[in-house]
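Colleagues,

For the teaching module next term, I've prepared a clean inverse folding example: a structure given as tokens, and then the sequence designed for it. I'd like students to try predicting residues themselves before seeing the answer, so please don't circulate the second half yet.
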């Protein structure tokens, strides 16, 4: 699911610059920041555990104590939760929630293990599934981390856990987010938005063209998300 597949209402400009924590940012590249956060009014703070990528803040996403409670408007997490050990994922998600303002939200994306498993079942374990800026990506890369990067010595690129739609939704609810929406993407990926208590209601409908493959979780069993006219706005 690319940036233009995630839709939000365009709100009125705010006088205060909003802060987005770009966690697991990697090497500086404006294109790595979701296009919504490249719009005027947003200020990116790059956060990474790897000092070699020269982050604004060097920190483990399981310990964001350098940031005060309720100090960020958003968290952008792109393909980094799968690099955590399984037992660390709930810790990181609680940290995401802690640093967000009452109106804040976390937008995240990661590999979809169920879609990847289907490639394995189809006998395509080592076939190229798609092309990325890092080069060709196979099911093995999506399951265990980009093999060329790991072979080059970047062990931060290893994958240590995996997510399905239902598992991700349950983890976010368990982390204390009052409202969660999880959807399948277009490239063997999952997308989720986890919202604080006072986050705007239109955030419940951020994903374009909801279907039975989109789930909204509120602490009860996941239900199908429903669409509104507000989806014609854009997160781009």
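(Answer key — instructors only)
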């Amino acid at each position: 699911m690319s940036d233009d597949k995630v839709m939000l209402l365009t709100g009125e400009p705010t006088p205060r610059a909003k802060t987005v924590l770009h966690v697991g940012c990697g090497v500086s590249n404006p294109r790595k920041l979701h296009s919504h956060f490249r719009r005027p009014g947003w200020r990116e703070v790059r956060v990474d555990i790897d000092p070699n990528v020269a982050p604004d803040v060097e920190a483990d996403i399981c310990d964001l104590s350098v940031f005060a409670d309720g100090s960020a408007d958003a968290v952008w997490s792109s393909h980094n939760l799968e690099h955590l050990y399984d037992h660390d994922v709930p810790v990181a998600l609680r940290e995401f929630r802690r640093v967000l303002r009452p109106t804040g939200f976390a937008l995240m994306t990661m590999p979809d293990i169920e879609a990847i498993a289907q490639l394995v079942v189809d006998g395509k374990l080592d076939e190229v599934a798609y092309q990325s800026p890092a080069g060709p990506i196979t099911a093995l890369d999506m399951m265990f981390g980009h093999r060329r990067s790991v072979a080059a010595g970047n062990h931060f690129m290893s994958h240590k856990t995996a997510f399905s739609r239902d598992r991700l939704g349950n983890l976010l609810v368990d982390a204390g987010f009052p409202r969660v929406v999880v959807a399948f993407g277009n490239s063997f990926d999952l997308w989720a938005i986890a919202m604080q208590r006072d986050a705007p209601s239109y955030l419940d409908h951020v994903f374009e063209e909801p279907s039975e493959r989109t789930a909204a979780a509120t602490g009860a069993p996941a239900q199908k998300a429903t669409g509104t006219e507000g989806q014609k706005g854009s997160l781009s």
